[in-house]
Amino acid sequence: MMDxxxxxxxxxxxxxxxxxxxxxxxxxxxxxxxxxxxxxxGAQLQDVRFGYHRxxxxxxxxxxxxxxxxxxxxxxxxxxxxxxxxxWRIPVxxxxxxxxxxxxxxxxxxxxxxxxxxxxxxxxxxxxxxxxLPGFMYLGGLLSELHCPRKDFPDRKIEGGSVGIxxxxxxxxxxESPGGWHVxxxxxxxxxxxxxxxxxxxxxxxxxxxxxxxxxxxxxxxxDRSTDWNHA
Length: 232
Description:
It contains 5 helices and 13 strands. It is of the alpha+beta class.
């Protein structure tokens, strides 16, 4: 165990913190801790909220002794192994006519299109958690060659399905929204349906892999966006 810091925020809320970094090892340990908390606290556990290196825990009934909890978690992590992640493949069209910021991004990074596609699709991205918007995945693993500061002036409207890069992260805008990431691709998959509230089957701890499709295939897949999930 990485010896996270556990502190009580209020009688019903406490926080578990790890080193402030985006890390696969930390993400896996956080998922293990959540599982242990569910087993330990049962119905007493009201809510668990994720960050990249922090869990916020809400207790519904009763109290929770931090020292006892720390020892329980330490023993549980030591005994547990790393679960095998589920892997999912997401199609992305890297056509500059579809991805509005791609040409400027390539110029800024000094890359040609083939180099960029190779770099963006060769990584297994770990899904850490959802946030910002329903269905917005926070993914870890973007290669340093593709890191790029967010835009100085965010866009008022980014279309749903836009694949973006901002800072050291990449992700998919699930619905139309404002945003400050550079749009470098588009996926035909529906990441969130506001009418039904349906989300894709990806869960924290899963691995996401992007693969390139051309514009023709992208437009064909748009015909049925909602059911085209792909296991790797």
